[in-house]
Amino acid sequence: MSRTAVVIGAGAAGILAAAALALVVDQVVVLERDALPDGPENRKGVPQGRHAHLMMAGGLDAMDTLIPGMDMRKHLIASGANEISLCRDMVVFSSVGWFHRWRHADPLIVTCSRALLDWAIRTAVLKSLNNIEIRQAKAIDLLGDSERVRGVRIATAGPDTPFDADFTAKYGLQLSADRGEADLYADFVVDASGRGSRISTWLGSIGVNDIPERTLDSGLVNSTRLYRIPEGAGSWPLTMIQPNPFTGGPARSGMIVPIEGNRWMVSLGGSRGGEPPKDPDAFLQYALDLPHPIVGQLIAGAEPLTQVFTSHSTSNTRRYLEKAAVWPENLVVLGDALATFNPLYGQGMSVAALGAQALAKTIWHRWGSQGLARRVQREVAKSVDAAWTLAVSSDVLYPNVIGGEPTATDRLAAQYTRRLTRSATGSYSAASALFDVTSMRKSALRLMQPRPLLAALTGPALPSLSGPPLTPAEQETLRGLIRAGQMGQGPQPSA
């Protein structure tokens, strides 16, 4: 008998989950309510789609295990993405000063727009695995009970997108009287529908009601604008002004991320009371007023290509599904449907990839076993833990946070991280430990190994930097852009 799996959501998390399931079932149906573009274009159903995204090394490694014969780093770079070394190709001003830059290449991350990332992952998976298909429809409920999920009740994405005859016949859909709803039966269901998931409501409808949840909301607002990379700045490093959780004031940050199409994606962030503006002139001034003005200095002489886009979908929210007293067979939740993070830390996409990898490893060895879905859910939760701790232990320190006060553990973790970060500004042992964890190649236990512990105790080996660690060529580029900005000669927005 053939086996069918259904995945809800065709974002990166859903497509990678489909790749995992394709190893053990005959057919995977991915349900997506949006019409998917043919190329790397923004779409309505991705609330953070216009803002900065990083694919960490751990996420890239996970994708390579999921997509047969595909080197995802090379595929993304061939599609237009940029490869960045966290050690060598970043200029970072942290809460305790500037990081030195090191000659070491690893760990490597990839930067590009979210639209390119989704499109490249989707094309790679569909090219490599021929038992996955995407159908435009929206999931409206689960079929089954608290013991076992048997499929998904689906509805048409709209009056203009009815279920086609092939879809109806292939999966034996019994259409409702108005032909707008149907029951799609499956041997396994994955919810990867993102921040807007209705999984808690759906679980309640089948008798699973004891799901602990936590939301921590710093009120972060992201404001993002695209710029053309100025002449001579094509190899400019990723530039980041990190927020400082120890001032007692709002988080304020800024970054310049190189993306495809010879563009800079410039994202400014601010928590409640320090939100970045949407007005273009105020956007520039906000960047200049950060703890160091380098982001504003660079964009003052660069050509803006878009308006300023803002997003408030930035809270940390986690559903502790692995703690449910009862969990139905054949249902797994991953990606943003399971946990969302402050996007400042750039780990959400990699967490989704690691969750799909955990799904693949577990079902490959245990398909058909009792308690499989619960076992998968617990493994997926492990991939969430480190990113959740990083985001929440920092965000909880900012004023006017909604969702809880910092615990003694939060404060202890923050103090140790601050001390290790200070050492990392001038110690490769400390910096490499931090980069291993933030790139998601190692767990947080890496920070407690002897070398980073010693570095945290002894402090930075190199003297503190008085300014950004730029090469002579980069210094000249920066001076030129500062002059252009001061003289009002920065290019105007494109028509």
Automatic annotation (TrEMBL):
| A molecular function (GO) term | FAD binding
- FAD-binding domain boundaries: 5-364
Protein name, UniProt field: Pyridine nucleotide-disulfide oxidoreductase
Recorded source organism is Streptomyces monashensis
